[in-house]
């Protein structure tokens, strides 16, 4: 006879219901996936024991998609169809990419976000990134042996809204439920801070393959509070490779090369950089397609010399972040180095000189971000052990609106803690004006033309009034992922226009749905089975949450309310083993609706508890 | 409306409504509140919880930002006492104050033109010292004398200094 299980009051989930959640570091050069198992964060390796997945995708003539090492092997032979460093193109138009003409790709200058022409058809950077993410999801599912509850995907802290949205779209396209977008330096700080039990103010210096971030965090009693962040979303290890590449051309008296030769020399440059870090001197030999022989020796001195301006370029955001946080070097307790590019000795030296102390390098700079993401994913999925610490992050760039004369009015200043909402009132400038164009921008400069355009929308149907009489309230909301939504409302009539700022050129939900369907069909996955599994995971999560809430706070409910909730709960429970995904979603929705007031009261209770808890400690 | 936003920012953090504020206490209260309401603490729950968490965490951040910054805190205290600081409408500043502002602007302009980062940073330090002195006066006016009209005038002056500070910040960044 089966025994009924009775949960201990206050227990959020039964111990055996460990939800599978992963953290993904979607890097410019390499990507990783990690998870928390037996209370410790570990990176998941492939079947050959390799932790890193090179962020390289090769598209073949017959629709085959290679990702990682196998794709890397194709890059010298088939450079047009082998996409490396795709992260640099996320949320970017062609004219945003400096030096795109020296890259071995056939770009399509599609409005907003560029595309790449391959034998498998045009590919958006979102699709290429999704192919990388899908490979990591498959790795995780195979290793963990179950359905994933969700994933935390890391992004450079300095990524703007367009780049963040593109990343989230890619994850959705890869069939991942995104629990949170997490800033890379913050993820690193979590892994580092929890590992070392650190307290104090820390700088995270994160130089990746293509992006540079610096974040200043205060770590205190389990709270990781980002005070300021800055960076350069187009500066990374790739640029150091490119300096070596230029040096090779200069030394060999070469100029324009074919795509194949360019890729060959870029690969040689990267290898030389890595050899230099380990040995201090690197021979570079190559034979170009026309038989030209390159035989050079790169020394640390030369490399330091040709990359000096890049190193200095990273110190600028460091100064900006310190200034924004109103701190000086003396206030800093430690500098944590993150990202493979921080292995370069000249970087470590420059950072040590600037801060007057040796930076901390005791965690693997390649893995620390993925580990932090896994720890966060574990907490967000509701597994135990994640309830005693907290992350408070900020928005990296100011958000504003276009006003008369092509100027930007800032609504949310950079380094504001998120989530945040700000509203501002605007008015009409012409008599009888019935529509208002809203242009949303991101950046620090005064002129619209110097900022990134995120979206344009129109508020229509304003009743004709004299100029200056209408009161239009525009509200910006940035959520915990750092993503913006904007709404506008005419105050006297209540006419409303709302938009989630999908960058004007991003993918629409329909696009993503279609691509998702295509890719699943291609992979031979049954759409319905997948949709049902997703609905079941979601329903189970809600059931667990409501049951735990009822066990703790049943006293907040009247008997009528209780029976309504019980009924909805029972319905959902009964439908859980069924195979109608739509019905299951409706029952989930119904339980959600039935518990709305209950949720609000529970939140109030928690807030009161937080306040009374503090009164006790302050009395001590 | 499900959420009780009727508590003012001081009440929300269980702090006395005064300009002089124990910042450490504010930080602790803020962290304690966010530990309960932050969306990360509700990510595994239903849509309703997530929405409430977003609204509450947003409110907590807004209240924290308002109380943490002295100028915003003074403005908010005056607002609680029914005083509009009229920063946008009342531009009648004393002549000697405007004169002093012009001198600041000139000094910043000169240092900016010369890309003199040392001078810009020196100006920034001097500016912040002056602002701190004014804040001490604001504290007296608000907390001890309840002289709200005078405090409002000082808030208007501080607004000018805030603009100078951000101008200096931009100039320093441009020179870096």
Gist of the model:
Chain A has 620 residues and is an alpha+beta fold. Chain A is 38% helix and 25% strand.
Uncertain runs of chain B are none
What would you report as the Rg of chain A, rounded to the nearest angstrom? 26 Å
Overall spatial form of chain B: globular
Termini distance of chain B? 48 Å
Q: Which range best describes the helical content of chain B: under 10%, 10-25%, 25-40%, 40-55%, 55-70% or over 70%?
A: over 70%
Number of helices of chain A: 15
Number of helices of chain B: 7
Secondary-structure-based class of chain A equals alpha+beta
How are helices and strands ordered from N to C of chain B? Answer: HHHHHHH
How many β strands of chain B by DSSP? 0
CATH topology of the largest domain in chain B: Monooxygenase
Q: How would you describe this structure in keywords?
A:
heterodimer, A: 620 residues, alpha+beta, 15 helices, 27 strands, B: 176 residues, mainly alpha, Helix Hairpins, Monooxygenase, 2 domains, 7 helices, 72% helix, 0% strand
Can you put this structure into words, describing what you see?
The complex is a heterodimer of chains A (620) and B (176). By secondary structure, chain A is of the alpha+beta class. Helices cover 38% and strands 25% of the residues of chain A. In chain A, the strands form seven sheets. In chain A, strands 1, 2, 3, 4, 11 and 12 form a six-stranded mixed sheet that branches. A five-stranded mixed sheet of chain A has the order 18-13-14-15-19, with helices on both faces. Chain A is globular, with a radius of gyration of 26 Å. Chain A starts with 20 loop residues before the first strand and ends with a helix. Chain B contains seven helices and no strands. Chain B folds into two domains: 9-68, Helix Hairpins (Orthogonal Bundle), CATH 1.10.287; 95-175, Monooxygenase (Up-down Bundle), CATH 1.20.1280. The mean pLDDT of chain B is 89. Classes of the chains: A alpha+beta (620), B mainly alpha (176). At the A-B interface, helix 8, helix 10, strand 19, helix 12 and helix 14 of A face helix 2, helix 3 and helix 7 of B.
